[in-house]
Amino acid sequence: MKKIFFFNLLLFLSFISIGYCLKCYKCYATSLSEYNDDCAFGRVMEKETCESRQGYVCTEYKYKFTVLNITTYATSRGCQKIVKGSMCEAERLEAKKFFLGIVKLGSCYICDKDLCNGVIRKRY
C-alpha cells in the first residue's frame, strides 16, 4: 500500500513540475528575404518546454549574413538559460566571434511568459 501511494505521489509531483516549466516556440529557418522565413509571421512552429521556469527565458534572434554578395537572413527561436548581463549583447558578441564577423545580430527579443517569442515586439 505504501509503495502504491509513494508511486502515485511521485507521478503527481512530476506532472506539477512539468506544468510550471516555461514553454517557448522553437524554430530555426533561413531565407534570402528578411520577411519570408518559416519562423516568421505566425507560421506553424514547434513548442518546447524549458527545464524550469526560473533561470530560463524564451528568445527570438534574427541574424543577417553576407557571403559572396549574397545576403541571407536567419531566425532562431527557443528556450535559453539566462546569462549575466545583457543577453542580446552576449548573443551579438557570440555571433561575431563564432562567425568571424560575417554574421550580424539584427534583432533580439527576450521574454519570460509561456509562448511569448512568437512575434517580434522589440528590436535592438
Task: Give a brief description.
The protein is of the alpha+beta class. The chain is built from two helices and five strands, in the order αββββαβ.
Q: What's the story with the biggest beta sheet?
A: 5 strands, antiparallel
Low-confidence stretches: 5-18
Given the structure, what is the number of helices? 2
Alpha carbon gyration radius: 18 Å
Distance between the termini: 58 Å
Write down the overall geometry. Answer: flat
| Number of domain units | 1
**Helix amount:** 10-25%
Give the percentage of residues in beta strands: 35-45%
Q: How many β-strand stretches? A: 5
Which class do the helix and strand fractions yield? alpha+beta
What strand line-up does the widest sheet have? 2-1-4-3-5
- Mean model confidence by pLDDT: 80
| SSE succession | HEEEEHE
Can you describe this structure?
The chain has helices at residues 2-19, 87-98, and strands at 23-31, 46-49, 56-67, 70-81, 103-111. The chain has 124 residues and is an alpha+beta fold. It is flat, with a radius of gyration of 18 Å. It has two helices and five strands; from the N terminus they run αββββαβ. A hairpin with a 2-residue loop joins strand 3 and strand 4 (70-81). The chain has one domain (21-111). It is 24% helix and 37% strand. It has a five-stranded antiparallel β-sheet, covered by helices on one side. Residues 5-18 have low confidence and may be disordered. The termini are far apart.
